[in-house]
Amino acid sequence: MNTLAEETGLPDNSIGSVFSNSVLEHTQQLELIIKEVHRILVPKGVFMITIPNNSFTEIITSYFGKKEADRLNETEFFHRNLWNNSKWSTVLEAAGFEIEKIQNYQPDRFNYVFRMLRSPLVKRINNLTKFWGNDTFLELISKSLDCNQGAGTFIIAKKKLN
Residue 7 and residue 3: Cα distance in Å, rounded? Predict the structure, then answer.
């Protein structure tokens, strides 16, 4: 039997909420997965999503060049669905969701630092707080959530009543 990732085996209208954290940008059969989430959610059930958006490539390109941005997307992160907010809204609404909130986060500086922290040199450092003080790193993360711009998107969508 060939079971695809979008076939959960859960009953219709049986789950109150689904949270997807940085997953949907990697999936090949995105519409089928969204359809399955819709099927298992109760009416007015909540689908919360965090995803990098199309700005990710633009920001990485501005700091490291297009070749490195393409390499990251294609071979390191396997990004397939780096869309703008309008495209995400269209796809989710077509599947029967209503968008309750859509907000960007992770400004340019956050993405630059994130990429640098993944560099081979930094990967060898056992304690990142030696490289970057803990207060500064936590402050960077906090500010990235409050900016309403950047390479990440947070979505809250609710299943429409039929």
Answer: 7
Q: Give the C-alpha separation, 93 to 111, whole Å.
A: 29
* pTM exceeding the 0.85 threshold for the entire prediction: no
* Contact (CB, 8 A) for 34 and 4: no
Helices within the chain (DSSP H only): 30-40, 55-64, 66-71, 85-94, 108-117, 120-123, 128-131, 134-146
Digits of tens for pLDDT over the chain (162 positions)? 334 545 788 999 999 999 999 999 999 999 999 999 999 999 999 999 999 999 888 888 888 889 988 988 899 889 999 999 999 999 999 999 999 999 988 877 776 666 666 665 445 444 555 555 555 655 666 666 666 678 889 999 999 987
State which amino acid sits at residue 52.
P
Q: How far apart are alpha carbons 7 and 13 in whole angstroms?
A: 14
- 143's CB contacts (< 8 A; 6+ apart) are 107, 110
Q: Are 3 and 120 in contact (CB under 8 A)?
A: no
Strand 15-21 versus strand 97-105 pairing type? unpaired
Domains and CATH numbers, the chain: 15-159 (3.40.50.150)
